[in-house]
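BUG: 3D viewer hangs when loading the predicted structure for this chain

Environment: internal workstation, default settings.
Expected: structure renders.
Actual: progress bar stalls at 90%.

Input used:
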Amino acid sequence: IQVLSFGFKKGAPVDADIILDMRMLANPHWDPDLRSHTGQAQEVI
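Structure tokens produced before the viewer hung:
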């Protein structure tokens, strides 16, 4: 399994078998209570 991030502006990767759109997930960076945590903090997960 390979996970990669890309921007739709430049197009989706042509060699990808499955593409999942995660843009609807909340970004913890914009939550003041979560902003100082890393991506591994239990509050963020």
